[in-house]
Predict the 3D structure of the following.
Amino acid sequence: MPPERVARDLVAALAAAGSTLATAESLTGGLIGAAITAVPGASAVYRGGVVTYATELKASLGGVPDDVLAAHGPVAPETAIAMARGVRVRAGADWAVSATGVAGPDPQDGHGPGEVWLGFAGPDDAAEAVRIDCVGDREDVRAAAVAEALSGLLARLTAASSRG
């Protein structure tokens, strides 16, 4: 499904559930938030987001504990989870998604281009990280990360709604 369609479905699902969303982005540089805010009516569900491209901003703006960054670095499942939890709390949102990784073309701290970690945090503070390995150039990696972040969050929201 095209990312634009997923973003529309995500906004509709959030609205139907009476839920809100926040984003924390690194390698995607705000593209997840841009995809969501391109949907008419997004203002009813999107609280906002942070772009923490520099590692130190993951702590100061994103709420990632310094010890998590020191132990695991910026490209790690623990960091993705902390980013999602941090922005969810700071934005007062029900749901959050985060993206951290290496868009390329060069490796970063031992992580190859295309390694991306997505973090998902929900209303009960349950959180998880998912690794995706993207192929292609920098633009391809970023586009794949956005598409996976949107579809992953929609799947989690849909599952929560069916349990609820």
